[in-house]
Specification:
The protein is of the alpha+beta class. It has nine helices and 26 strands. Strand 7 and strand 8 form a beta hairpin. Helix 1 packs antiparallel against helix 9. The relative contact order is 0.16.
Amino acid sequence: MTSIHTNASAFTALRTLRSVGAALDGVQSQTATGLRVATASDNAAYWSISTTMRSDNRALGSVLDGLGMTAAIADTTYVALDSIGKQLSDFMSRLVAAKEPGVDATKVQAELDQIKAGIRSAVDSASFNGVSWLNTDLPDVKDRSRNYQEVVWSAGRTGAGDFQLQTSQVVVGALSALNKSGGGLLQADGRNLGTIGGIRPYSYVDDTTGLEVPYPTNYNVGTAARKSFNFAGPLKFLTASDQLSFDLVLDSDNHADVPAPWQNGTPQHIVIDRATVDAALPSAGGVINNNLDFTAVLNKALAGKGASADFPIWYSVGPDPTAYYLTTNQDRSSGLTGSYLSLSGLSSTVGHGGLSAFSAYGTRGSSMTLPFTKFEDYKDDNLPSGVSVSFDFHVNQEPAKHYSFDRAYVNSVLNKSDGTIETPDEMVTLLQSLLTPDWPHVIIAKDSSGNVQLSSDPNYDRLSGSGTGIGFYNISVSNEPLPTLDLDKVDIVKNPSMINGYINYVDIVSKNVTEATTTLGAFQKSISIQSDFVSRLRDTITKGIGRLVDADMTMASTRQKALQTQQQLAQQGLQIANAQSANLMSLFR
């Protein structure tokens, strides 16, 4: 119906025009900004995600800048280390040349001083933006927990959505050439463990080599019962009735060494006659002229007795025509544990040949004393758990077992944090923790002098004499040999006898500088890889954000043209609807 109050067609056309206008505004915003989601009202979820990721991407941009700064410092350090390595090679060649006859040490030292100045210049110049990894001021250059520098490495979000900055560590202590408190690559290393609490007998700096000289073995061994004589003769066994006889007792226990019950040893009665002499010396005509002849006859008499393998043996002493001695064999086939010899009941028709009555005990070698000196198991860049000490240990003829400990182990056993062994009691605790599980019958205790005593319990190990022993072998410390000099102090004019020491020292320093350069080169590679990763990650995040919020410009452009056409048609429709009202009004004119 037609009404003068309501123009339904105009209302319809107006609604269509408004709808098309709103859609056209949205499409025009996309074509103007390039964004499908420009505000939270467009798509709250996508807008929130894109806003957060844009923030993270800007943070990654800062990370990339930080990696560039770290790379610049690393590059500067590498150039300096490489220069130092080459100059050390020149330094070494000058030292070797100084050993040649007729070389003027003063001139060589002048060249060495110039090289030292060049090395110092390289160290001082290895700074970027005021940061130097070669010239440092570290309280403990070998303390990994304090000698590193953190560098920005990456950034991201945890599973809980929290932003997290990731860092990496540059162990500056491993690169430091000159450290204010010492210990740099070109300085002496003061982390000397000395005797390791007595485990090794000594450790000192050899003036001729310039190196710390540790002694790798520390042991005690037992000695067999023995008695020396001087031959007196000749002894002439001319008739069948000529004889020399005596009694021996072998390998009874020493009451002072082991508790009761004691073994009384093996008695043997020895008779030497013309037949014995002829068997030992077929062409001697029964005459014993010297110690060699006499020991041959004595051993023949023992063998003729069919004695056990533990029976004694006679030895002559070198070219001396008189000296000889008797010692027990002790291969333990007789089951006896002692080391003892006695000679008695001496009787002869031809003379004694220097023999005389005696009794002698061997020694029990399964006991040793460690003169205790306090020491510290130091921190170490190369080993996070600290300097490692290793050794083999065995008792008597049993197979040796291998042991090791480091700073972390010391702290764990002694409930400490500083890696120190300060008292004999602490040393006892440390050794017990290592040895007792494998050697339960080795007694480890502090003695009255404040030293550490290790001994095999005589209730379980009653052996004495040769074949008994206790000790440490293949003692090794991970940070040795130590450089014990400073490069600046090398002076072949003042210390001409130290040239060999200087050469060895520079060789160690060169190896350490090479190792530092290698470590830094690996770090440079890591920076390059990480920079490439962060750069690609930023690109990937940017693409991901685009997938969420970017507009499809082809579709938006086509859509815009369509909506503009719809808008024009809606406007024409509205005009037609309004024209109908004008026609109606004309009926009443």
